[in-house]
Amino acid sequence: MDAVSLIRSGQETETPWRFRLDELGWRDMVTALGQDTLPFAGLWCDGADVHALFMPSPTQPLAATLALENGRYPALSPARAVSSLYERMAYDLYGVEAMWAVDVRPLVDHEVWSATAPLDASPGLAGGRKGQISFQPSETLLAAGGVTGGVGPATGGTETSLHVAMAVSGETIVAAETVSGYAHRGLAARWRNSRLEDACRLSGRVVAGCSVAHQAAFSQAVEAACGSKVGPETALIRVVLMELERILLHLHTLAGLARGAGALLVASRCAWFREKLLALSAPVIGSRLLMDHCVPGGTRLREATGLGDLCTSLAKLGDEIYPGLATLWQTYPALSVRLSGVGPVDAALLDRVGLDGPVARAAGRDCDGRRTQRVYQSLWRLTAGRQGGTAEDRALILLDEIGESLRMLGEAGPRLGLTAGGRVDLSPDAGEGLGMAEGPWGTVLYWVRLHAGRVAQVFVHDPAPAALMVFEAALPGQDLADLGLLRQSLGVNAAALDG
Amino acid sequence: MGLIRAVFDAAFRQGGTRLKPVGPRWPLLLFHIDTGGCGGCGMELEALASGPYDMEGAGFGFVQSPRTADVLLVTGALTRTMAPVVDAAWQAMPKPKGVICVGGCAVDGGYFPENYSVLGGLDRKAAIDLQIPGCPPSPQQVLDGLCSLFRQRVRGAGGPQAEGSSSTSS
């Protein structure tokens, strides 16, 4: 029996796509997953149960639930490598143990918190460590000679806080792994029993640069839990915001890549184009990083009726500047050569950890959540097409996507006209819902449980955990000086990872 | 953490003993630490450093080591894991030195007040020389804030000025 059938054979719950399994059923599911390609979206705990979410099709979720027995459950990491990060997070937050897990090291709790297992009904004592944290290197790193170098968490740069511990031979990285948790703000605890508005604000601050994707997915999840759906105009406004966010973050990433590769002129041009777009958009939308504009039931913009004209203006600005920027990027001396040797990523690795988004699209994978979303019909068209999987391919995919998103804005502008979108009145009581958006780095997915009109629990799927695993796998053999380029080109972000 | 005792130095202010001249030839060097936030303030600092704001012309620059920094520029809500890192960076900085908090999180935690993993900003834990609020503050607001240290006003920097000041997130 395949994994989907095994999950569906479980006991039905109040949510039609979530089934409760017993421990034997869960174990059978893990065994079946070993021979199955069912896409895995995440695992989380709520103190009493552990839940695993899968996506049998891009629009159809399927979840399995298992009641914890003595605080333990069979791990999914033997069948889905990325589950390891979710299992380690669940242990740090709730103290629940994943049996037969492939990695049981702490992920975010480094014994400096004011309580261990802080989300458990009876949290443990405070961690006793004073001063900077220490960490336990994996056996792979020890076998490669132990830690002989490290970068972060404070580099003076503007990236989020992450430590990369490495075994280095000369200038070449032999083995490496990351130490995370520096940016853990306790989002899961803050979401518990929060008001919808507060929870939405938090979702916009999981990771900057992807705020629209997070808040759109959160809002969709809340709307689904309430049994409501926003109208096509509001959905189109959200699409416009998401595409604008994609353009802005991709330009930010490309500027960083160009700077890291020594092409300062290209970096400056990307940053300048981004500022030109922001100069037009921020006064109409109301912010530069597009936070707090997607809210449950609708959207909230400073001048909503000006959005249609704004899209037309942005597309026109794109027509003026984008072709020159694309040519500059492609012809700038040595930029392609510098990036082409950095971080080749095997498509099989991406499949194994389940990373989608532009990183997968640059390695020959044809995956884009926009393809299946109704609101993108007649807007989206294929942007994949590169196979190499190097930092150069990823940069060119980002560049292509900027052009495509500018085109989409140009088409969306006349459709929006003077509409302000409107709001749907929600009656949040109790229920579960799922929301999904194609963020700049891949699928962002929210599972939200409402109770008594408030948010009871939230689970977020972000590309960050899978991107981290790809990053760690791509580091060996790389030049030490390319670490920053590799990190940027894979979209590794500690804020999204740590939660 | 035995939190940093920011010895504010009059050298950075007009009217005091100016140990460190200020101006295009003598930039005030900033060492940035993200102490646990969403990364939005870092993105805006990046825009300030690389966008058309002429930050260096106004007399400021970012450095990659605290040993060469004049000012510790903190963004993020100060997690318990990052607190010792901030302390170590502060200890490594030469005197005179100061602390600037950029963004609401760095000041008082903002949307991330104190909990099991977060200390909730540097306010009341250290002497802060300058607070630049906002979630996040725009690059122009950050630059204006930095210039206010010297009671300077930024001379007409062209395009970005107007758009920056009108575009802070809620």
TrEMBL record, chain A:
Keywords, in A-Z order: Lyase, Oxidoreductase
Annotated ranges, domain NADH-quinone oxidoreductase subunit D: 269-412
GO molecular function per UniProt: lyase activity; NAD binding; oxidoreductase activity, acting on NAD(P)H; quinone binding
Q: Which Gene3D superfamilies match?
A: Cytochrome-c3 Hydrogenase, chain B (1.10.645.10)
Name-wise, this protein is Formate hydrogenlyase/hydrogenase/NADH dehydrogenase subunit
Species assigned in the record: Acetobacter orleanensis
TrEMBL record, chain B:
Q: Which family does it belong to?
A: Belongs to the complex I 20 kDa subunit family.
Q: Does the keyword 4Fe-4S apply?
A: yes
Q: List the cofactors.
A: [4Fe-4S] cluster
One Pfam match, given by its short name, reads Oxidored_q6
| Stored InterPro entries | Complex_I_20kDa-like, NADH_UbQ_OxRdtase-like_20kDa
Can you give the residue ranges of the NADH:ubiquinone oxidoreductase-like 20kDa subunit domain? Answer: 38-148
Which Gene3D superfamilies does this chain map to?
A: 3.40.50.12280
- To which species is this protein native? Acetobacter orleanensis
Lineage of the species this protein comes from: Bacteria, Pseudomonadati, Pseudomonadota, Alphaproteobacteria, Acetobacterales
Name of the protein this chain belongs to: NADH:ubiquinone oxidoreductase-like 20kDa subunit domain-containing protein
